[in-house]
Specification:
about 25% helix, about 220 residues, 7 strands, alpha+beta, DUF3000, Enoyl-CoA hydratase
């Protein structure tokens, strides 16, 4: 399994000493935790440009679950840090994510799908014993039907999960970002249709939908 990689919000890992000294130590340690995470096979993760206005300090990663040349699901995870704390977060760190995938029609027709998808996130966190607060988010489905020159394509439904939560801070005010990234990658794999592995096998109320049939083709 490959270790996660990424960059600080100024767009560079190799900051000069002046810039690095301006980054709070808890944030640097939290980012180090993300970089040291060991991820399950089939996940490709890359640096991403983090948002500049959500918090004083931000760090972002983009990931995809791949099968050959096909992406089964993709997502973005952002670590935010405000040393002064944030009233809405009830903490100094916040994790924000967007995850999306295309579904087969029979899966999209499941009326419980939104609740199941949300359980993938909360279940992955709880299976790792991760304390968190102020979790919120949306699960959105959008269907596409094709006509004219595209009429041979099957109807498609894309599901999108937007969520954020406040990770519990540990020693030195640093959350276990490595474990949170692993939990997030489990969500990414679940929405891609892969079965859960590792801690989520222990049972935390997480519901699995039928396994993904394979990549989509026109």
């Amino acid at each position: 399994m490959a270790a996660a990689q990424g960059r600080f919000s100024d767009g560079a890992d190799g900051m000069d000493s002046a810039k690095e000294s301006s980054v709070p130590l808890p944030f640097r340690r939290a980012v180090d935790g993300l970089k040291k995470a060991r991820l399950r096979p089939g996940i490709e993760i890359d640096p991403a440009r983090p948002p500049q206005r959500l918090a004083p300090h931000a760090y972002a990663l983009e990931a995809a679950v791949v099968d050959g040349e096909d992406d089964l699901a993709d997502g973005r995870l952002i670590l935010l840090h405000d040393p002064s704390g944030h009233e809405a977060w009830h903490g100094t760190f916040r994790l924000v994510t967007l995850v999306r995938a295309e579904l087969e029609p029979e899966m999209a027709a499941d009326p419980l799908l939104p609740e199941v998808c949300w359980s993938w996130l909360t279940g992955a966190l709880e299976a790792r014993g991760l304390a968190y607060g102020e979790a919120s988010g949306t699960v959105t489905m959008a269907s596409s039907h094709y006509f004219g020159g595209l009429s041979e394509r099957r109807p498609a439904t894309q599901i999108e999960i937007r969520a954020s939560w406040t990770p519990r801070e540990g020693v030195g005010g640093v959350p276990d970002t490595s474990a949170h990234l692993s939990a997030w990658c489990e969500l990414l794999c679940q929405i891609a249709g892969l079965p859960p592995v590792g801690p989520t096998d222990s049972g935390t109320g997480v519901v699995s939908l039928p396994q993904r049939r394979g990549p989509h083709h026109p």
